[in-house]
């Protein structure tokens, strides 16, 4: 084991140390956590010379208990809950991101104004354009496979310079590990090629955003518990209740799928990003899409999450909601049809401020995550809001400098 400063679970992207966290503070002196390697995650990193990687669990320095608000600890708790109910939780994510012509350093020096995607047109399923990006994508796929991460494929996505990487489904903790490592690999391999690879959900208001769709299912005794060959669409009662739980608690869990101000700029109609809390069958306008209907591969795809999500927190929140739906025996409403953007069902939170308020109101999250954990992440959200609210944006200056 080794140690780290306990501020690491209470900082923002700039490594600032905001006040207001109960778990650590200047008042407490910012002590240590223990970092205990999970040796099952140990692997060579083929894209970096002489490098190995291992993921760690975060433990209290004095009690050696897992820190409850640690993302891996939260997911472990929900995995244990599923196991106690007789289920194995399986998941997979789709990683969407943009590749830019220039490097992070070059773009930073421009003040983030010289943002040119690597392609000049929408490259969704486009063979020629993705061939031009193979100097980034081929080493990404091959190096990840060599590191034991089962990449299925990559493809051009529905915007200029946008790619998608798909990794085979796995036990949910392993799926979160795969997502985390793949995201770092994409940035590092892009850097090696002089390209910036960005997981910002919405880098330009006129462009489609980047998502991290989460495919999920439960298994029991080695067989898919979501499948019933005699049920409509092949959806078992367990699957229906699980999906009903996702719907019931969608607003309350949105923060864990969209944790930053920019996350909510992605929720726009006509962009393949959801705006409403609803499910449908093979319908990319819905927040929850049932895939593989009528087959043993039937599953739920949550389309709410952005490319900036933490996979452990997102999957923990999804499991918490779905398992609650099973425990509560919830009934699943009828599937939506057609263009869901035109529907009348409840909207997803449209801002981080709304999502934070919904999280704080959630009895389910307080029960499953604990009061202190909910307060911890509510503070993380409020800090992001405070920081954004104090900044004068380019939009405000351009709009009002002369005309205000």
Short précis:
The protein is an alpha+beta fold and 404 residues long. The protein has helices spanning 71-84, 104-109, 127-132, 134-146, 172-192, 237-248, 250-253, 311-327, 352-361, 363-368, 371-389, 394-400; strands spanning 2-5, 32-37, 43-44, 52-53, 56-60, 88-100, 151-156, 162-167, 170-171, 196-198, 214-220, 223-224, 279-281, 288-291, 299-302.
Task: Name the descriptors.
alpha+beta, 404 residues, globular, 3-stranded antiparallel sheet, 12 helices
What does this structure look like?
By secondary structure, the chain is an alpha+beta fold. It has two domains: 2-67, no CATH class; 76-396, Creatine Kinase, Chain A, domain 2. The chain contains twelve helices and 15 strands. The protein has helices at 71-84, 104-109, 127-132, 134-146, 172-192, 237-248, 250-253, 311-327, 352-361, 363-368, 371-389, 394-400, and strands spanning 2-5, 32-37, 43-44, 52-53, 56-60, 88-100, 151-156, 162-167, 170-171, 196-198, 214-220, 223-224, 279-281, 288-291, 299-302. Strands 6, 7, 8, 9, 10, 11, 12, 13, 14 and 15 form a ten-stranded mixed sheet that branches. A hairpin with a 5-residue loop joins strand 7 (151-156) and strand 8. Helix 4 (134-146) packs across helix 5 (172-192).
